[in-house]
Amino acid sequence: MSETPRGNVPEYTVGELSGAVKRTLEGAFGRVRVRGEITEAKGYGPNRFYFSMKDPDGGGKLRCVIWAWSAGRSGVKPENGTEVIATGRLTTYPDQSNYQLTVDRLDYAGEGALLAAIEKLRARLLAEGLFDPARKRALPHLPGLIGVISSEKGAVIQDIITTIARRFPRPILLWPVPVQGEGAAARIAAAIEGFARMTPRPDVLIVARGGGSLEDLMAFNDEAVVRAAAASPIPLISAVGHETDTTLIDFASDQRAPTPTAAAELAVPSRMTLLSALQQTEQRLRAAGAQRLDRSRLRLDRAAHGLPDLPGRVQAARQRLDELTGRLARAPASGIAAKRHALQALAPRLPHPRETIADRRSRLTLLQHRQEAAGRRVLDRRRAALDRLPDPGPRIAAALREASARLEGFSARLQGASYTAVLARGFALVRDSAQAPIGAAAAIRPGAALTLVFHDGEAAVTAAGTAPPRKSAAPPPATPRLL
């Protein structure tokens, strides 16, 4: 086979051709800015993104990559449908024979794109409930400390200080932050969270900046700032831009002020207004008190005409009290004398208690003898009846004898339990003047009237003296012994 003439066309390897294209492409363009709409956005980790950019009319598509995205370097996060301006270097990807834009910075493309991105974020945060009016808190009536998040330079902080000093002087704590540019949103969010961690922390916060373009106010449309404002435990007033400017922090704050000066007026009340209201309240209270006092005095005067002569009634009552006091002092003596006379009249007809007790004791002894005699007669009749019975047989006879023996045993036990049997053996029962039995010698006092009860009668005696009770000999102390 004959060789095909090559002519003057140079020959390259694949690597050489890729390198030549890379050098030509990067040398011709270098760093560029490309405007287009983001599509096919994919994230790998928190800081690495792949996406494409296309023209709104679909005329072309450019692959893009961000290797180290951060909110400080770029305020725009790659999202599908967002029109942006990408700044970076045009490079090639030899493995797939294509080129791509390595992006260093993303910016919204024009005010329309900014407004679209803001509206998209607002709708998402609204769906999460961050703008719910029920989450908003009332501002304190008179805060003890006011926190301000703003730039330390410019007229904004001066307007706030001047207004608070004029209305009601309060201490102000400024957290200086940049209010626009790279890193401003992160600094503002950190200031809101930092005030929440302070001890003691302010009673109210003011986030303020002056007017500016939509791009200048984008830090206050940042998602991190809006979430920090919504999560702040301190009531927050937003005062960003002029009265016609609206940012997303206005929806998340507890109160929106059209200007920083208006925010200061919302934070503290007017001292002159409070003094005027206080004076008016004092005047109303004084007038109401005087009017009530006049009405009470009039009612008292009317009631005084209908009252009786109180001093005369008091004197009459005092005189009756003196009379009753004298009668009360004489009543005890006359009452005692009447009772004594009645008792003396009844005394001859009343028997002496000792005679009554002795009579009752004699009756009791007689009844006891009668009961014992009746028991013996019943026992004799039963025994005689048993003797008259025909021969009942050996078993019945044995049972009868056993029953008779048991009956006699019960009778003997009854006799033994009677204290009269004990008295018959030579003992005596000692009673005191109240006829209560005495069981111990220590209970007898010298000169006490005693009654000695024997089996055949009683004897009245008087105690001459008592001997101390004998102490029983204590047992010898125990000693150890070997077992």
TrEMBL record:
Main location group: cytoplasm
CDD domains: ExoVII_LU_OBF (cd04489)
EC number: 3.1.11.6
GO-annotated cellular components: cytoplasm; exodeoxyribonuclease VII complex
Reaction catalysis annotation: Exonucleolytic cleavage in either 5'- to 3'- or 3'- to 5'-direction to yield nucleoside 5'-phosphates
Domain Exonuclease VII large subunit C-terminal: 130-461
Signal peptide coordinates: none
Record's keyword terms, sorted: Cytoplasm, Exonuclease, Hydrolase, Nuclease
Biased composition (Pro residues): 474-483
InterPro entries: Exonuc_VII_L, Exonuc_VII_lsu_C, OB-fold_nuc-bd_dom
OB-fold nucleic acid binding domain ranges (all copies): 12-106
Region (Disordered): 463-483
Top-level taxon in the UniProt lineage: Bacteria
One Pfam match: tRNA_anti_2
Subcellular location: Cytoplasm
A Gene Ontology BP annotation from the UniProt entry: DNA catabolic process
PANTHER family referenced in this protein's UniProt entry, alphabetically: EXODEOXYRIBONUCLEASE 7 LARGE SUBUNIT (PTHR30008:SF0)
Biological role: Bidirectionally degrades single-stranded DNA into large acid-insoluble oligonucleotides, which are then degraded further into small acid-soluble oligonucleotides.
Quaternary structure and interacting proteins, as annotated: Heterooligomer composed of large and small subunits.
Family: Belongs to the XseA family.
Protein name as it appears in the record: Exodeoxyribonuclease 7 large subunit
